[in-house]
Amino acid sequence: MQKLGDFKLPNFFNYPPYFTLQPVRDTRDKQVQLWKELILDYCRAQKIFVIGLEEEFPLFSNPVIERTLSHEAREAFLSALVSEGRAEWMDKGHKKCLILWHRIQDWADLILQFVRENGLEDSVMTVEEIRSGTESRGTELLGMDRTVLMRALKHLEHKGKLAIFKGTSTDDEGMVLAFPLSEHGISDANKLNA
């Protein structure tokens, strides 16, 4: 089995037709599904959040069989992820794609789990502490893309699970993690910050 670093590539990666968009609908549907799974698995294993459509990306070529995905194929596979909510185009020209190997709701759930497991309820943390703090080591939150993290935090704020407030410096965003574990909930935490 071929590897890309420590990542084991699936068998289809060595099958030349899978590097060309297939004209028969059923075959193309299977091809797209396999590529979607591969892209998500690889990005998760390598902690990759952004794929540039016109940039070198290890999955998009296989030197062993001398095949490279066309621009059309790359865009088709990434667009399929976008249509399922597993990716988002970052620009109108479809040049960069934000990969959501976890959906925003799933990232939000992981953050809640992280906070509970580390006893961080009703505490104040910076965004960077979640992405790179001691507690995040060994978790999927370590090195998390800031854009994805902020979207997950805003989702939690919208659900009343935490309050986000600006820090004292321009590059510092703090947040109060106030879980409604009692009848008081987030509204009492907001009063504390007033």
Helices and strands in order, then pairings?
Blueprint: E1 3-4, E2 7-8, H1 25-46, E3 50-52, E4 61-62, E5 67-68, H2 71-83, E6 87-89, E7 96-99, H3 104-117, E8 123-126, H4 127-132, H5 146-158, E9 163-166, E10 173-177, H6 185-193
Antiparallel strand pairs: 1-2, 3-7, 4-5, 6-7, 8-10, 9-10
Helix pairs in contact: 1-2, 3-5
Strand content: 15-25%
Structural class: alpha+beta
Q: What is the tally of beta strands? A: 10
Poorly predicted ranges (pLDDT <50, ≥5 residues)? Answer: 180-194
Shape: elongated
CA-atom Rg in angstroms: 20 Å
What is the strand arrangement across the widest sheet? 3-7-6
Molecular structure report:
- This protein is α+β, with helices and mostly antiparallel strands and 194 residues long.
- The strands form 4 sheets. It has a 3-stranded antiparallel beta sheet with strand order 3-7-6, covered by helices on one side. A 3-stranded antiparallel beta sheet has the order 8-10-9, with helices on both faces.
- The termini are far apart.
- The chain has helices at residues 25-46, 71-83, 104-117, 127-132, 146-158, 185-193; strands at 3-4, 7-8, 50-52, 61-62, 67-68, 87-89, 96-99, 123-126, 163-166, 173-177.
- It contains 6 helices and 10 strands.
